[in-house]
Design a protein that fits this description.
alpha/beta; 46% helix; binds nicotinamide-adenine-dinucleotide
Length: 328
């Protein structure tokens, strides 16, 4: 599927909208919304990072065969980023590829994970190491799923929203500065606008650079260190990215004379996200970092800020990262 044909809809979830569908559903979402999926073919997946594995892929494929899924079937992910990432991958390889679409149920998946066609699973300590870039046919967003989203998951979603603002949109950054989590959770119309804005930011970048040869790399702001912390310390993606952004903001000040690292940290703190990790295992984190799949001749691509709303990638060697990590 070409990203230009992707259809993004803001519609209430109804099983009658899906023909030949097999739903891959987050276990918590299934428990909370069983009535919406009554009578549907559903494969249940635990919405946990450890589910992003080849073992889960194998289990889903076995269930698809039991359901007699064929090339006319459509896989529909109903869940957060874990479920959308796995579903996109399974659909890309099942019978050499079948149609798929997403119904994201976390804020993070609505504004980021469901968009852009990157999908896949982890392999041992390697995060998102096995996967494809393959676009869904549709993304259907039903904001009513957010009513049951735990507070921590709202915060995680805002980590990616702050990321988009930092790399691409000073106006959004200033809006985030003016308000807080409570304001957005209590104002569904404003929240809807923010979700649409973030989808457009990500889509705008991805459309120009689907395969991540250039500008798409900027979307990894906070993720290079973030992924390593997530893997070593088993904390949520959003929290890890928040810490990663604080580190990248400090590096940006050192390398590009970026003048607002403290302001970025303050914004992250105001959205109740961590700005550091007290017992960071720097050695293990550094080792994982050096296994990053985007490494180039022992150099790591780091996304840094030159200004609020403007990012650049910089190649750094192990020593530079080690020194910065020890200062952090
Ligand atoms: N493909 C991409 O471009 C991309 C981008 C960003 C993140 N990701 C990936 O996304 C994953 C993180 O996604 P996430 O933050 O959505 O986490 P997640 O999928 O683990 O969901 C977080 C938690 O929320 C629960 N949940 C989901 N919807 C709910 C609802 N409506 N009500 C109540 N509980 C609900 C889940 O059961 C889970 O416990 C990571 O694996 C990350 O690597 C991918």
């Amino acid at each position: 599927m070409n990203i230009k044909n992707l259809s993004i809809n803001f519609i209430g979830f109804s099983k009658s909208n899906y023909d030949n569908a097999i739903f891959i559903v987050d276990a918590t979402v299934f428990d909370l919304y069983a009535a919406r999926l009554q009578g549907c073919k559903c494969v249940i997946v635990q919405g946990k990072e450890r589910s992003k594995s080849l073992a889960t892929v194998k289990k889903i494929i076995a269930e698809l065969i039991t359901f007699k899924a064929d090339r006319k079937s459509t896989l529909v992910a109903v869940g957060g980023g874990v479920v959308t990432d796995i579903t996109g991958y399974v659909a890309s390889v099942y019978m050499r590829g079948i149609t798929f679409g997403f119904v994201p149920t976390t804020l993070l998946a609505m504004v980021d994970a469901a968009i852009g066609g990157k999908n896949g699973v982890n392999f041992g300590l390697h995060k998102n190491f096995i996967g494809t870039i393959n676009q869904p046919s549709f993304i259907n967003i039903d904001m009513s799923f957010l009513k049951t989203l735990p507070l921590q998951e709202w915060k995680n979603g805002f980590a990616e929203i702050i990321k988009h603002a930092c790399i691409k949109d000073e106006k959004l950054y200033n809006l985030l500065k003016k308000h807080d989590l409570t304001y957005f959770t209590n104002n569904p119309q404003v929240l809807l606008k923010i979700i649409k804005k973030n989808i457009n930011i990500k889509l705008g970048v991805v459309k120009k650079d689907v395969l991540e040869n250039g500008e798409r790399k900027h979307l990894n702001f906070g993720h290079t260190l973030g992924h390593a912390i997530e893997t070593v310390h088993k904390i949520s993606h959003g929290k890890a990215v928040a810490i990663g952004m604080c580190f990248a903001a400090e590096l940006s000040a050192q390398i590009f004379q970026f003048d607002s690292p403290l302001e970025v940290k303050e914004l992250i703190h105001n959205y109740e996200l961590p700005t550091r990790f007290n017992s960071l295992n720097k050695e293990k984190v550094l080792n994982i970092l050096m296994m990053d799949k985007k490494k180039e001749n022992e150099l790591i691509h780091f996304v840094l800020l030159t200004n609020i709303g403007k990012a650049e990638t910089q190649l750094l060697d192990k020593k530079q990262i080690e020194i910065a990590l020890h200062k952090f």
